[in-house]
Amino acid sequence: MQAMVRMRELWDRLRPMFLTGEAATAANQLFNYRKIWMLTAFGTALVTIIPLLILAVFNYNQYQTALGAEINYPFTRLVSNTRRQLRSFLEDHKAALSFIVQDKSQAELRDPKQLRRIFANLKNTFGGFVDLGLIDSEGVQKSYAGPYDLTGRDYHEERWFKDMATTGVYVSDVFTGFRHAPHFVIAVKRELEDGSFFILRSSFDVGLFAGLIASIDVKPTSDAFVINTEGVLQTPSRHHGDVLAKLDLPVPPPAEHSEVIEVPDLRGEKFFMGYAYIENSPFVFVLVKGKDAMLGNLSTMGNGIIGFSVGSVLYIMTVILAVATYLVNKIYEADLRRAATLHNVEHTNRMASIGRLAAGVAHEINNPLAIINEKAGFMSDLMATAGDFPKRDKFVSCIDSVLRSVERCSAITHRLLGFARHIDVKLESIHLDELIGEVLEFLGKEAQYRNIAVSVQADPELPPIESDRGQLQQVFLNIVNNAFAAMNDGGRLEIILKPQQADRVAVTISDTGCGIPKENLEKIFDPFFSTKKEKGTGLGLSITYGIVQKLGGKIDVRSQVGHGTSFTVILPVVRA
């Protein structure tokens, strides 16, 4: 419950009072608070949020750079390591064939037993060799060791044989050839002194490359394979086809070193492709990973930076708006107090002027009233000594009526003088029941005309108080006037005066009017707040509240819509 009360108090402090309510209309006539509020919030936001956004953009760019390095480095290293393995495999097997072709003569290699022995040694030492064959300069295989019957096979029309004319070592891409199975060959040529040459040729299963690639630990969403420079798969691919199928991704551009690029597939999905061209071969090693798999937690970090920046901006804007609203509310309240003070001063001056005018009028009226009273008294004395004459009783009655009217006028002028004399603050001993009677005499005719019943109950032990008569008259006159305005004809006004504790007295003024809604009870003492719409200024109760506080008292109000309102004014017996 206390938390809710504190939240309510906090909201009351931070809500923009200058933007809502009838008081805002009166306040906005002083200053454009909305403009002040917006300029304050906007200017503070520019000073605080723009540097934050610049820093966030800088950090995000730095993060993107770090993200690229974080992605490229391990990816490129894995591609480079695999390229070295494939290159080492090719170089080792080429070196073995080059050693044999230089060490053995053509005659030795044409011997089937000798060739089979050499083939067996190569398989045991290096592994991977499928067969071994000797081919003369005419392209005819003169000797063969291996699982196929390829002795005498003519290769002079094959592309690889034609390429051997310009190079001493040849590595083919994968093809099916005479054996109708995917394989690639490595061939080494030896030039003879007579201008002829012979070729030592060995074939290899694509499973060798596939086995090397399979040793790479790639996730199910990733793929690793070998293609040739035309984009034909040289090893099976997990997601892009089998051997000798056309790759559905773009062929990466030639590069001396391992590279990482971003490419789309046929469906438009983005992939990171790491690739490396293997020197002195038609092979290109390719490692493909999905973009989401590559980014992983790194993307989450980027989203975290963005989320933190957005959250910070929202938090800063909330604080800025709260502080700006609080400050402008303070300015607004200060201006309301200033306006109320100025109005109070103006009202006091006006009351002083009215008092002086009333005093002057009363003084001017008192002079002829004194003459009338003197002449009427003299006439009464003459009538007392005169003898009987016709209509004597009628004359006596008229003289008595004149005297009573003069007395009544004199009482009225004395009350006016009482109001006028107490415009300035002056402490004196006051009997509240008498003061309430003086106030009600001014409103007696209205109460009689509107048939409003007025009752005053004063405690017999009610002590006199030390206060200012004129200001108390103004307080009770304001409250009773408001009560009359809230009641319909035939209403009832009840005033109760009683002691409270040992040093205070309470005056409760209750009416049977329309009542005040609960949401307005906390506002009725605010400057410029009025429930009378255009008929009220909203300053009567505000001035009343200020006078009561200045006199050392306090004022309380209770109301129920449709049943009436009670104002209780508590005043000290002795002014502190």
What do these coordinates show?
Mean pLDDT is 81; it is low at 21-28. The chain is α+β, with helices and mostly antiparallel strands and 576 residues long. The protein contains 14 helices and 16 strands. It has helices spanning 2-14, 21-28, 33-103, 106-110, 112-125, 159-163, 207-214, 291-295, 297-385, 392-421, 432-449, 469-486, 518-521, 540-550, and strands spanning 129-136, 141-145, 169-171, 183-191, 197-205, 223-228, 259-264, 270-277, 283-290, 427-430, 453-458, 465-468, 492-500, 504-511, 554-560, 564-572. The protein has a 5-stranded antiparallel sheet with strand order 2-1-5-4-3. A 5-stranded mixed sheet has the order 11-13-14-16-15, covered by helices on one side. It has a 4-stranded antiparallel sheet with strand order 6-9-8-7. The two termini are 37 Å apart. Among the domains are: 104-205, Beta-Lactamase, CATH 3.30.450; 333-424, Helix Hairpins (Orthogonal Bundle); 425-576, 2-Layer Sandwich (Heat Shock Protein 90).
Task: Please specify the SSE layout and strand pairing.
Elements: H1 2-14, H2 21-28, H3 33-103, H4 106-110, H5 112-125, E1 129-136, E2 141-145, H6 159-163, E3 169-171, E4 183-191, E5 197-205, H7 207-214, E6 223-228, E7 259-264, E8 270-277, E9 283-290, H8 291-295, H9 297-385, H10 392-421, E10 427-430, H11 432-449, E11 453-458, E12 465-468, H12 469-486, E13 492-500, E14 504-511, H13 518-521, H14 540-550, E15 554-560, E16 564-572
Parallel strand pairs: 11-13
Antiparallel strand pairs: 1-2, 1-5, 3-4, 4-5, 6-9, 7-8, 8-9, 10-12, 13-14, 14-16, 15-16
